[in-house]
Amino acid sequence: MKKTVLLKGTYLWDGVGEELSKKGTIRIQDDRITAIDYWDKLSNQHHDQLLDFTGMTIMPGLIDAHTHLSMDPTLKNYLGHMNDPLEDLRTRAIHMMEKDLSAGVTTCRCLGDKEFLDIDLRHAVESGDFSGPRLQVATRGIRSPQGHGFVGYPFAGPEAIKSAILENVDAGADFIKIYITGTLKGAEEIHSYLTHEEISVAIQTAHGAGLRVASHCVGGIGLDWALDLGLDTLEHAYHIEPEQVQQLSRCSTFLVLTPSPILTDQRVLNLPAPLIPGHFEERSIIFNNMAACIASGMPFAVGTDGMHGELVSEVGYLVDMGATPHQALQAATINGAKACNLEVEIGSLEVGKCADILIVDGNPLNDVNKLRNVVAVIKAGELVIS
Ligand SMILES: [Zn+2]
Description:
By secondary structure, this protein is an alpha/beta fold. It folds into two domains: 4-60 and 348-385, Urease, subunit C, domain 1, CATH 2.30.40.10; 62-339, Metal-dependent hydrolases (TIM Barrel, Alpha-Beta Barrel). Helices cover 33% and strands 21% of the residues. It has helices at residues 39-42, 86-102, 117-126, 157-171, 196-208, 220-229, 242-250, 260-263, 265-269, 276-281, 283-295, 311-320, 325-331, 334-339; strands spanning 4-8, 11-12, 25-29, 32-37, 49-52, 57-60, 62-67, 105-110, 134-137, 141-143, 152-154, 176-179, 213-217, 233-236, 254-257, 300-302, 357-360, 374-379, 382-385. The protein has a five-stranded mixed β-sheet, with no helix packed on it. It starts with a strand and ends with a strand. The model has no long low-confidence stretch (mean pLDDT 97). Bound molecules: zinc ion (ZN). Residues 66, 68, 111, 305 line the site of zinc ion.
């Protein structure tokens, strides 16, 4: 016998419409949404439990479309801390996921962690060992031995990259992460650390195994190659050129923006000392490049790149860069679901979808900072934060 819960709010943002609806009551059976309507229409039907959030706004659970579970950018030299012992990383990751869930994040897309820690954590969350967001994981990020990628692992040549990807697939990766470029531009043109052949092999191998490919890539020739070769998601795009914005808006590659690594002072100051000046020097050009992507009208998701519990800050940056609150909220909900390839299951409130729900006080379509007013969080039909 399925358990039926009636969730009573006053307002509803379903993740699609541009305004709040007054159909603020949701019926949930086990983990599924089975009805959305006015309280008067649903209140007299059978239910086992009533969750009363009168006066509040019901919306989809948030999706952090780019994070690293054991990363904590509030730590001094946080990239160096990614080399802490695995057991310490695990303990930290559990704490980070608690912060995410408390902030309304019901799904995290993990773009690589140390070893196969993210597989272990996904399994632990699914088995109920502790509560955390649902996880989509990349396992080991794949980079060139010369290349950028503090969280990634070096593999040289197409054959080694192919084997590494197949090992990630065997371990249970949900998708594959590759590092094509560094993060900053510097004085010279943006170098592609992976060759055209390596990118091609990575995409073909992953697609052959039924998985999608995400790439850390900020621009340059590597971005041209990746778009031509059918990259699935482009992460960061900090130094994308106007012609590449045009190409990206026409092709199937999906953009995931990550503002805070560049725009948050304290985070930049927690980088290794030699990296700090460049981040400040390139801030305004990167801001403008991200703004150009938004202005093009292409869909985009958003991620914290490890700033756990602070997805709302990233959403705020999107608005600063010219997104409407509706676009910014969609980046953190339905478009995050698209980046995860889970839009059939999550990302909006619709009958038949999984009941991942955030309840906030106020109207986030007027002011995205209302996302900070978390009243309760429901994941797969279970009240996990209240
Ligand atoms: Zn990242």
